[in-house]
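Attaching the record inline, Q. Sequence:
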Amino acid sequence: MTRWPAKNQALLPVLGSVCQHVVMTLSQLSVPQVDASVDALWDAALPVLFDYIAIPAKSPAYAPNWAAEGHLADAVELIRSWCAENAPADANVVVHEIQGRTPLITIEVPAFGDPTSQDTVMLYGHLDKQPEMTGWRDGLGPWTPVLEGDRLYGRGGGDDGYSAFAIIGALNALRDAGGSHCRCVGLIEASEESGSVDLPAHLEQLGDFLGDISLVVCLDSCAADYDALWATTSLRGGVGIELRVDVLDRGMHSGLTSGAAPTSMRVLRQLLDRIEDPVTGRILLDGLHAEIPEGRIAEAHAAAATGVDVRNDIAYSGTTEAPHGSAADMLLATTWEPTLCYVGIDGVPSLAEAGNVLRPFTTLGLSFRLPPTVDCGEAAKLLIEVLSADPPSNATVTVTATKGGNGWNAPVTEPWLAEALTAASMSHFGRPAGGMGIGGGIPFMSMLGERYPDAQFLITGVLGPESNAHGPNEFLHLPTARKVTACAAHVIDAHARR
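Structure, as predicted:
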């Protein structure tokens, strides 16, 4: 997306007046032809997407017996067969298998038309899913596809099952409209929701097959609204920590022991106060913070000026108050500030089974989100050091880093891509493209950023307001899926002519 420096913010209010000229000079594909091709493909693909949503293809982190259960294999075969049938005739669709690893689908499409280079475009998506989650409203469920108006409900449609259809749709539309593209390689993986744990092994095995990648189109991100093409410009990293405190060898009668023995929860509270302000939630360790680039600050203000406010899409319970501050402040807080969430607990019985017992231990699952430029390995070391030192009451404290991944900060956008994004968004949404950071992570982007430092990136997606990825009532907004597909066609064509 266009990286607007602070001095250019005054251009934003008048950008729309010049965008039609940009579309005319840069969008060489016939917009009606692209739309017609994309609409025809999506109309035909929709029943297959229904079938995909019905498959409980949970990511391996949530389905340890995934290989025996066969759901991931079913989803892979569904997507593979559809791609093989609907991809350009010269495409090669292959499923790569590694013992003990989830499969990877590759879609290789030779160059078409008259590209100006022999570079490669990589197009990325995934087909594994998050677990069910409770709270689905009546008539909906994770594995029950339901179409209501523009919304296709069910787990995985927007995150990220639509991506394979969008990849094929974009390339077909580009060709139908007389455009050009460099060699393209699509990757549809099956472990992204587990941190892309199996992807590095596949990439190593593929070797030189990937080629000289100069453009990455990732379809696994978010949209601030459904009225423009949104490019993700940064992603936070993350570290998972299991923090266990043992105070007794076994549970004991609370009336006979409390007062003479510490509780594991009290020790945990003291440890947690070392790393998080209990009132504001601010992370207290300087090593987990990073300086926010001026361009990203300006970008947040530009997005906020269009009406984007992340608080509008948060389901606060009852009288829970939203944090104070400007919409731009909230964007930066969710994309460039470190945070801590408490995502799991062991050692605590349910209320129905809880007796008057001083429990021997408590384990907390801590999920830290890190600024895009903070190294997750260094962050894990710091957390282990701070939480392990000088345990309160000399309790037994065990700190384990369970998983982690680095964030990603987009390189400076080249003029051809900035212009192509504007032209594509104006052509299919009628509004200039927007850009902002995202608080979540896509592990593959960090891998690619290190491996291809000179590449340009379009990280985009369909997860807009209320789509609730990973949660109950998740849905795919179908008009946005169609428009993002069409926009991708324009960007890939512009890359071939740059």
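Residues 31-53 form the longest helix (23 residues). The chain is about 35% helix and 20% strand.

More tomorrow.
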